[in-house]
Amino acid sequence: MLSLSNRLSVFLSLLISIIIFGVFFALLFSNILSPSPSALKKGLQVSLDEYTNSLSEYYNNTAAQGILLSQHISQSVEELLSEQHVSFDALNDNPKLIETVEEKSYTILSTALRIADCSGAFVVFDATVNTKLQGAESSRCGVYIRLDNISISKPVNPDFTWLRGVYEIGAKHRHVFHNKWELEFNLDNFPFYHTLKQHAEANLANCFYYSPKMKLPGTWESMMWLCVPLVGSHKEFYGICGFEISSLYFKLKHTTNKNDAQNITGLIAQKQDDFLLPATGLESGTASGYFADLGSSPLKTEKILRGLNRYSSQTGTFVGLDKPLRLSPLDNTEWSVATFIPKDDYNFITNIYYLEIVIICIIFFCLALVLSHYLRRMYIKPVLSGINAMKKGEKKTSILEIDDLISFLQEQEAQKQQISSDADMTGFVNFQNNIEKLSNAERNVFNLYLEGYSAQEIADKLFISINTVKSHNRRIYTKLEISSRKELLIYAKMLKKEPEKNTHDKKKTI
User: Fold this and answer.
1) pLDDT tens-digit map of 16-30
2) Helices (H), 230-295
3) In degrees rounded to 5, what are phi and psi of residue 185?
């Protein structure tokens, strides 16, 4: 059984703990501590939503710029053909006319590239400079220019690299020639070219296409292409045009928003079943320069606790979220946007969070114990002083409640003594009157009890057995109306005092 002091200590500990933990959880939900797993998930969700909205707006704007580019180039081609009084087929095997078309198209491309937020622009005409050359069926004339030395997105006054097109045009405009420069495009590098040609229509909003990430032939560089068909006023197919989005440019343009996690990666890629395919899309990191370098290994997607996904590949394991994004009307492939952090970072953040909780709980619990101990001592000290005063017989203490208790106990004790005195006198009178009822044998035993002998001593003195003494005892108790030897001795003591009292009263009378 706990003492009053210990009970008070437990009560105060619980009370203070409840108050302190209330404050602790208020701090917890106000995000003053390290992010909780739920807060981290919320942060990743916010990053994903912002990243998806940013990419959706970007790809839609780029598509709109590509459609406008297609319309301008198609109009320019038709005007030139009208001036030359020739059909579009006249471009085949006509280097001079091709150079003229490319010159006019270059002006439109360079202007568009300065406006659009991309790393390159191109136009591919459905014609070749020499139809008799080997591989001519896969060769197409056109112009491809790119930003030179990409270090920031959308530079103010960019220099261009000449990648495809007539040499004289690139030299005339003093562009740097790419070390992989070629006169014409190889359609083998544009597997979607024939799909665009087949689905070309006047409403270009229904037939543009974003390619998966592809390598620039002969280089380490990779990029996505926006491709829009060139459609004449009479639905003639002139070729395709569009913009390039290189991996480097995408990294510079689309940094992910930092939240509680520092190393967050953004990805847009095709999704197949439960796999994200980084090899088909583009990746970006934070403004500080971090990105995961996911490589080309598929990322297996698995649901884990708290609504997050785990993405696993040979490159590493990540934790995050993804959501679908439709890029183009001609593409039935499922694309997804994802934001995630390395699994080690996720474990570190959550472990720090739980460690902080444990440390704060221990600190708060120790504070609760110390505070409750102090309050207990301050509260119990006057109580203990009052109890000590009671033990010393003092009738007044410094505590009102204890003084009331002392008064109450004194009244109770007085009443008990009065009742006990009255009861004893009544019993003693009966005891005296009943002595006459004892037999001689019982009176002999009774007298020896009065002299202080024990039962065994009485048996020896009267030469009887102890059982006989016990039998006499039962009859003595019954006749004297007492219940124990203790009560017998009390009345015997009173009986001895009675003659003394009578003698004293007689002396006073005389």
Assistant:
1) 777 766 666 665 555
2) 247-253
3) -85, 145
Task: For residue 117, give the 3-state DSSP assignment.
Answer: coil
Q: Tens digit of pLDDT for each residue in 245-257?
A: 999 899 888 887 6
Q: How far apart are the first and last CA of the chain?
A: 64
DSSP three-state, residue 404? helix
Long-range Cβ pairs for the range 190-196 (8 Å, 24+): 190/124, 190/225, 190/227, 190/240, 192/227, 193/124, 193/227, 193/240, 195/330, 196/227, 196/228, 196/229, 196/240, 196/330
Structure tokens at 74: 């198609």
Share of the chain above pLDDT 90, in %: 40
User: Are 265 and 256 spatial neighbours (Cβ–Cβ below 8 Å)?
Assistant: yes
Separation CA 384–CA 396 (nearest Å): 14
Residue 258 DSSP label: P
Of 305, 233, 298, nearest to 272 by C-alpha is: 298
- DSSP class of residue 33 equals S
Single-letter residue type at 99: E
> Can you tell me the distance from the alpha carbon of 421 to that of 429, in angstroms, rounded to the nearest whole number?
12
Model confidence at 94: pLDDT above 90: yes
Burial (CB < 10 A; 0-12, 13-18, 19+), residue 424, is: middle
Instruction: Tell me the sheet residues that pair with 335.
Output: 270
Q: Specify the DSSP element, H or E, that contains 338.
A: strand 335-342
Decide if 229 contacts 66 (C-beta within 8 A).
no
Q: Which residues contact 49 (CB under 8 A, 6 or more apart)?
A: none
* Pair 270, 280: CB distance under 8 Å: yes
Q: Return the closest-CA partner of residue 73 out of 101, 95, 115.
A: 101
Cβ–Cβ under 8 Å, residues 295 and 278: yes
Other C-beta atoms lying within 10 Å of the C-beta of residue 314: 9
pTM: 0.68
Residue with token string 């280089």:
219
Question: What number is the average pLDDT over the span 460-487?
Answer: 85
